[in-house]
Amino acid sequence: MSTLIGLPKNGYRVVPGPEAYLSPSAAIMGVVLPEEGQGLIEGEIVPQEVAMEEIANRLLSARNPMLFPGPLVLWAWSDKAVAKAKALQDMVAEVPGMRIIPMPDYRPKYPMINPEVEINPNHPNLTIWHNNIDVCMFVGVHCHFANLALKIVRAGTDCYTIALCGERGHEDAMITLRDVHAEEVRKITETIKRVKMGRVSCQKEE
Question: Which of 116-142 are b and which e, b meaning 16 or more Cβ less than 10 Å from the residue's Cβ?
């Protein structure tokens, strides 16, 4: 599935786990954040368009894809947040079977959390295990909580993680994009549509 072959230059690939009880930080292992117009695929810096295409392929190939939106897009605290949330809803509608489990706040809820209703960043593995999620996307989650949750997911599950960040990106995700706002989400949606149409054409030819 991956568009890449071999190891990144730093020698460490960020792939689905379970990796270890305490998985190492990707940054400690030499993974660096992308610059403007770039993304990361499993620790390797690639052009933004390549990362978007891989996101589309991963989502469309998933058995049970899931969007985990955080407070930055769940609450209408600005016009930009509202626009981004609407763009995300349009994106989810283009991925067959994709659902949404929100992360409305970061207060510890274990063991009382209902994993069908929300995701707890302190124990995201519980929601992933309970719902058999194989590909998930984090968006609108404050960076420090996203980094924590992504490490826990990599440590204890085999879920493929995607992180759309409004800032610099998240090296602990399998795929990450930086500077993602409503316009970038719409570009991902258009990429999903294009990839989906390409798959339908291939099936017809067969």
Answer: eeebbbbbbbbbbeebebbbbbbbbbb
